[in-house]
Amino acid sequence: MVNSIIKNDKKFYSKLFAIGLPIAFQNLITSALNMIDVFMISSLGVTAVAAVGGANKLYFLLNLFLFGTSSGTGIFSAQYWGKKDVKNIKRILGICLIISVSGGALFSIAAIFFPNFIMHIFSTDREVIIEGVKYLRIIGFSYCFTAISFAYIFVLRGMNQVKIPMMITVISICINTFLNWVLIYGNLGVEPLGVKGAAIATLIARTVECSLLITSVYVLKLPIAGKVKELFDISKSFVSKYLYTVAPVMCNEIMWSLGVATYSFVYGRMGEDVMATMTLNQTIEQLFMVLFFGMSSACAVILGNEIGNNKIERAFKYSKKFIKITVITAVCISLLIIGTSGFVVSLFDDLTDVVRYNSRLCLIVFGLFVPFKSLNLILVVGVLRSGGDTRFTMLLDMGGVWLIGVPLAFISGLALKLDIQFVYACILSEEFFKMTFALKRMYSKKWLNNLV
Fold it and tell me: What pTM value is reported for the model?
């Protein structure tokens, strides 16, 4: 009976497209214009690319901390929305704002007051460090605005409100790109600022994004447009319940991000060309992964809504449907990446032949691992977390990075001194490990927990 409902379930697909496509489009625009940013900065040379890439590792750590906090909050937001409990969604938003802004403030202090220390972690090249310090001292002022934006975006997603954040993000990124063109190169009569110009452009864009989000929530009178008292009407028991589920997600993202930062440490010790290669590649890779980011977010919301509404069996059936869709899509994306790798890298003709050659080989390696990487994204972020199974996902992610990825990075990159494409393949091999255990957990149904 349930199978026949699922096979003919127009509601599932309409919700998938209504939530997934705007998020995927939002990520597509973000990734595409991030690639344009790298393209603009690449005209300043390999040193500038490596410097901005190294400096942005701190933002990458912040991004994952905020993703952990906000996606954990999104679990509750989706389930509370499933039972139409707006009052507690406002409280969830309040807790998320407190934690996110506090974390953003700490990262700001690190970027503004200790930029030399930060850059020395990711590079040993003096010129790279000097340029990176210039970037960090400016970009650090944007971190708290980013923290607020994350909180609102993820809570709105849990309530199936995805179009407004998408439009605001697109506006913000367009502003960022335009200001990059003006400030990096010195167009429209402005003095060319190089790397500092890129930082100023990003600071302005993130400030605008945060302001537009908050304004939209209150002007449009969205359900989470609460008074300060409503947002922070939080009891000790409510916070404990929140942290029991969200704390493992935060720990997960922090430890995973530290592992990824360790990869960057290895890349930095392998030389400026390798650092520039991976900065370029990570930007391109995000572009190819946008569809899966959208699908994982839609998966978390759809399953969370169903679980919060006590439709447990339907949630499990939907999870299997998401897996099938992901596998088919991932194989197609994998072939696309491998087939277009040479063309994509050739667009960055200001970079050295070595960087472009390395980038193409690393893209091919990435393409081979896309099916496993995308499946893990859907399983961990979309399926398992939607039911609050955050402790298992924490152990899974931490085990993959710290027991497999990091040791292999040091052995292959620093001990054996292999070429970057082989080092990258060793690092990505952790995806096999994670996929095996994540699939087993999904079919056990132990993740299906109604938290609200």
Answer: 0.73
